[in-house]
Design a protein that fits this description.
Pfam families: Zona_pellucida. This is DMBT1 protein. Keywords: Disulfide bond, Signal. The structure is a single chain. The protein has 116 residues and is an all-beta fold. Helices cover 0% and strands 39% of the residues.
């Protein structure tokens, strides 16, 4: 466990460990839950499809392509739960493959009207 105060800035880093030097990593989706085994009932989206869902969520420059850095302000689930657990989905792509998901950034899906 990592203990923090409310609204304290949290900084995280995800590293890809591979002998292939031509890979890059991208943070696609991160959700938080008060339950470590249930990330569907009560969740808070920090980022989804590369789009920030929380105003404090930010990506930070990384020294290498195989490292992703991000952060957000600490929060609680309505002060009823003592812990917050994170689950993040990362995408691994070929470095400099600009058509890959890693280089698309925020991908928002628009809902269509079923009328026409």
């Amino acid at each position: 466990p990592y203990y923090v105060d409310m609204n304290q800035n949290l900084f995280l880093q995800a590293s890809l460990h591979s002998s292939d030097q031509n890979l890059t990593v991208f943070v696609d989706t991160c959700v938080a839950s008060p339950n470590s085994s249930d990330f569907s009932t009560l969740v808070y989206e920090l980022t989804k499809s590369g789009c920030a869902g929380d105003s404090t969520y930010a990506l930070f420059p990384s020294p290498r392509s195989d490292v992703a850095r991000f952060g957000f302000n600490a929060f609680s689930f309505m002060n009823r739960f003592p812990s917050v657990f994170l689950q993040c989905e990362l995408v691994v792509c070929r470095y400099h493959d600009y058509s890959s998901r890693c280089y698309q950034g925020c991908v928002s899906r628009f809902k269509r009207n079923a009328d026409s």
